[in-house]
């Protein structure tokens, strides 16, 4: 930092083996400043939180003055790459008669850049028409910055496919069983997680209940059975279900009508739409 006789200052930083100017004029004489330096001498990018999610690239330096980023990914000095930063020094030169004064205090030092993750929006589970037949709408107070940072939507540990399994929009995460992902077509309580860079995970428990509708396509299953003839019953199943067919009236050839009971048990184990047909013959 250079001080002029008229109160002006110039600020430089060590870039490789030379000095480079830092910003325009970040300092003024006679004013207190808070200076923060995030120095990364490792081989990879590091994340940290300062006025939102930030990163400092490998072998670069970020400099903040009073909460303002005045130096972003600046080239470091001559220290070898990927070695510990084990010391730092302040010194003054070229002040005739040592008339220039610089006061430094309240030091805080750490040997790691910690990533203090931001808080994501709170997710609210859907409670309306939450069957495997319908889309599931999980809501939240919209945060466009958080949405832009989202990297994955998961059920349990399994990532879902965007567009096919879900759509993330303003204030809404829509899960889509129609994409036929078994995690969404099977009923149960699902642990839904949204992951976003620089944020803690957003999670919610979302129930999905079985479809309650089972439709017979052949006159809703009511069709006369005649001795010696075969009838085919067609149904559409969307969940695991056990069905009993009960035949009440049989027409016996050349005999008086009598009442008999015939029960046929059919177990459907599909968890996605299937068109089923099976013959019944007396």
So how many helices? 2
| Largest sheet strand order | 12-11-15-16
N-end to C-end Cα span:
101 Å
SS class: mainly beta
Write the layout of secondary structure elements.
Blueprint: E1 2-3, E2 9-10, E3 12-15, E4 18-21, E5 35-40, E6 46-49, E7 53-56, E8 60-65, E9 68-75, E10 136-139, H1 144-149, E11 150-155, E12 158-159, E13 166-169, E14 172-175, H2 182-185, E15 188-196, E16 202-208, E17 215-216, E18 230-237, E19 241-250, E20 258-268, E21 274-281
Antiparallel strand pairs: 1-2, 3-4, 5-8, 6-7, 8-9, 10-14, 11-12, 11-15, 13-14, 15-16, 17-18, 18-21, 19-20
What is this structure, in a nutshell?
This protein has 282 residues and is mainly beta.
Description:
With 282 residues, the protein is mainly β. The chain folds into three domains: 2-98, no CATH class; 136-208, Sandwich (Immunoglobulin-like), CATH 2.60.40; 215-281, no CATH class. The protein contains two helices and 21 strands. The strands form eight sheets. Strands 12-11-15-16 form a four-stranded antiparallel β-sheet. Strands 5-8-9 form a three-stranded antiparallel β-sheet, with no helix packed on it. It has a three-stranded antiparallel β-sheet with strand order 10-14-13, with no helix packed on it. Strand 3 and strand 4 form a beta hairpin. The relative contact order is 0.10.
